[in-house]
Amino acid sequence: MGALTIVAKYMIVAQIEVNGGVDKSDIIGALFSQTEGLLGKDMDLRELQMMGRIGRIEVDIFEKNGKTKAKIYIPSNLDRYETALVAALVESIERVGPYPASVKVIEIRDLREEKRKKIIEKAKELVKLIEEEILPDTKEIIERLKEDVAKAEVVEYGPERLPAGPDVDKSDAIIIVEGRADVVNLVKHGYRNVIALEGISRGVPQTIIDLSKKKNVTVFIDGDKGGELVLKELLKVAHVDYIARAPPGKEVEQLTAKEIAKALRNKISLEEWLAQQKASGERAEAPSQPAQQSQQEQPAPQRPIQAPFDLEKKIEEMLGTLEAEIYDQNWTLVKRLPVRELPDFLATSGDSIYAIILDGITTQRIVDLAAKKGVKVIITARTGPLTKVPEDMSIYTFEQLKKTE
């Protein structure tokens, strides 16, 4: 079986006794066949192995006199609860071929703990060097120690085995960088939800595209022309929320903790980046949309709004909330949600939608999704660059409505 090589977090070690003569392939075959479907597709051993969540299963036969005894080694990249579940699943094996068998899990080793022990041993060596005044610069040792710890925490994520921090799955937001060295530097300074493109010469990895659909995405690029080229390639196929950039001439892997924090604090939205590109006279491509030929920065109101409440008061109420309100044709409130969740709601909701009021930026993506839902009115804090607005849709900014009140 062509199992993926994984960076395992745990190693399940089990002992099997078979009342008959069998070989390694018989034991491995029994593991897959007798556990199939017991806990559903998500915990199926074949599926987990194909996804790189468990690695190649090894079997060492150490006694064979009419009966077979062997040890089974299963590397796992699952969390500790899922790993324990796999171990319990393995213990459910009752036969190998025609012979009765019993399996007992001996231990589940935390491989990361072994890495930590090695790091600590290395730290002891470095401390000894300090004591002997061979390395008098304590700061340098601490930095090397931090880097060793960070390298040990970097995992390989997805079928493309992309370098990543350990919290990419757990976090609602991710930081996308260019290469492994960038990942190591950010993990060293406490940013564990980071993942690398690892070059785009063969295109943007599908793992990155899939993550961008369900996570809040910040792209952190180098402060040079190469960083801009990487960003533009990414924007063609992936959804990006924010863009952060290293200081001019610097690479992300070179940044100090303060420089990283400042760059991420000063990140800008995709809409702001597109507006900057337009202002500088460059043609910028937004995700899944053609190059912009004309802009509609401040759409003019098309018809009076017949809302059954004071719009100026509603705008004052919405300001600063970063939320959106969804209304049906009778101006009955259907839902209130964060603006960042609005595109997904429009893409999946089955509700009837007539109007949207949002304390945020109305982008072309929002306009396109709203048009498919038959939305007639959008009232927004600001608009981004818009290339096409349906004739039967009116878009008003907060400022425009305040002027007309």
TrEMBL record:
<feature type="domain" description="Toprim">
    <location>
        <begin position="172"/>
        <end position="248"/>
    </location>
</feature>
<dbReference type="GO" id="GO:0006269">
    <property type="term" value="P:DNA replication, synthesis of primer"/>
</dbReference>
<dbReference type="Pfam" id="PF13662">
    <property type="entry name" value="Toprim_4"/>
</dbReference>
<dbReference type="GO" id="GO:0003899">
    <property type="term" value="F:DNA-directed RNA polymerase activity"/>
</dbReference>
<dbReference type="GO" id="GO:0000178">
    <property type="term" value="C:exosome (RNase complex)"/>
</dbReference>
<dbReference type="InterPro" id="IPR050219">
    <property type="entry name" value="DnaG_primase"/>
</dbReference>
<feature type="compositionally biased region" description="Low complexity">
    <location>
        <begin position="286"/>
        <end position="300"/>
    </location>
</feature>
<keyword id="KW-0548">Nucleotidyltransferase</keyword>
<dbReference type="GO" id="GO:0000428">
    <property type="term" value="C:DNA-directed RNA polymerase complex"/>
</dbReference>
<protein>
    <recommendedName>
        <fullName>DNA primase DnaG</fullName>
        <ecNumber>2.7.7.101</ecNumber>
    </recommendedName>
</protein>
<keyword id="KW-0639">Primosome</keyword>
<comment type="function">
    <text>RNA polymerase that catalyzes the synthesis of short RNA molecules used as primers for DNA polymerase during DNA replication. Also part of the exosome, which is a complex involved in RNA degradation. Acts as a poly(A)-binding protein that enhances the interaction between heteropolymeric, adenine-rich transcripts and the exosome.</text>
</comment>
<keyword id="KW-0460">Magnesium</keyword>
<comment type="subunit">
    <text>Forms a ternary complex with MCM helicase and DNA. Component of the archaeal exosome complex.</text>
</comment>
<keyword id="KW-0804">Transcription</keyword>
<dbReference type="InterPro" id="IPR020607">
    <property type="entry name" value="Primase_DnaG_arc"/>
</dbReference>
<keyword id="KW-0235">DNA replication</keyword>
<dbReference type="GO" id="GO:0008143">
    <property type="term" value="F:poly(A) binding"/>
</dbReference>
<dbReference type="GO" id="GO:0005737">
    <property type="term" value="C:cytoplasm"/>
</dbReference>
<keyword id="KW-0271">Exosome</keyword>
<comment type="similarity">
    <text>Belongs to the archaeal DnaG primase family.</text>
</comment>
<dbReference type="GO" id="GO:0046872">
    <property type="term" value="F:metal ion binding"/>
</dbReference>
<keyword id="KW-0240">DNA-directed RNA polymerase</keyword>
<keyword id="KW-0479">Metal-binding</keyword>
<dbReference type="InterPro" id="IPR034154">
    <property type="entry name" value="TOPRIM_DnaG/twinkle"/>
</dbReference>
<dbReference type="InterPro" id="IPR006171">
    <property type="entry name" value="TOPRIM_dom"/>
</dbReference>
<feature type="region of interest" description="Disordered">
    <location>
        <begin position="279"/>
        <end position="304"/>
    </location>
</feature>
<keyword id="KW-0808">Transferase</keyword>
<dbReference type="GO" id="GO:1990077">
    <property type="term" value="C:primosome complex"/>
</dbReference>
